[in-house]
Write a sequence for this structure.
């Protein structure tokens, strides 16, 4: 699963870079797009067996290398509830906490000045995962927690909607593949964000 996750993300990233000169201008070289975002984190595979759908919030930033190609970064903090067997009354499991700090390349399609702008992106970076278990049985009171930071890749698509001269509303979906020991940790993120543009203008 790790191999296919990396291949998929590399394919998206390669497609983004390869098309960097094939469409009409959407933005301006040297322009910045920055803003907050929030959405759902949907665990998959083995991770989905241990965690419920969660919520995340954070921010995104882009810098336009060309009128259609941007590089940027994502910062997202996700919290996912843990699944616990009903018969384990003496065991409590902390929510999973997943911090994403990644870079990306993003390619925007469409006509200049359009109200809707679709895009593809691919990214890579680091994911920090935290979890914990508490056991309280008679005189036994035990708390165990663990944290690890691993490399991961992601890729997906989104859409921007014009909300003003210097503001856009976006929706985005992405697949994440984190290279944890054993099977990779995989999840899908789906959310919305608000972007403000500044710097170079048309």
């Amino acid at each position: 699963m790790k191999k296919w996750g990396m291949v998929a993300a590399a394919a998206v990233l390669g497609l983004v870079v390869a098309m960097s000169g094939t469409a009409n201008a959407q933005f301006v070289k040297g322009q910045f797009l920055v803003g907050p975002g929030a959405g759902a984190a949907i665990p998959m595979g083995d991770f989905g067996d241990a965690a419920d759908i969660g919520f995340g919030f954070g921010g995104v930033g882009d810098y336009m290398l060309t009128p259609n190609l941007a590089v940027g970064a994502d910062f997202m903090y996700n919290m996912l509830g843990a699944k616990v067997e009903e018969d384990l009354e003496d065991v409590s499991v902390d929510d999973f906490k997943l911090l994403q700090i990644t870079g990306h390349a993003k390619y925007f399609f469409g006509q200049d000045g359009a109200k809707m702008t679709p895009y593809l992106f691919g990214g890579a970076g680091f994911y920090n995962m935290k979890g914990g278990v508490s056991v309280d049985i008679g005189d036994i009171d035990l708390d165990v927690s663990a944290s690890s930071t691993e490399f991961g890749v992601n890729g997906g698509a989104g859409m921007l909607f014009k909300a003003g001269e210097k503001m856009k509303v976006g929706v985005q979906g992405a697949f994440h593949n984190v290279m944890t020991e054993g099977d990779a940790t995989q999840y899908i993120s789906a959310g919305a964000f608000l972007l403000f543009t500044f710097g170079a203008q048309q």
Summary: The longest strand covers residues 140-164.
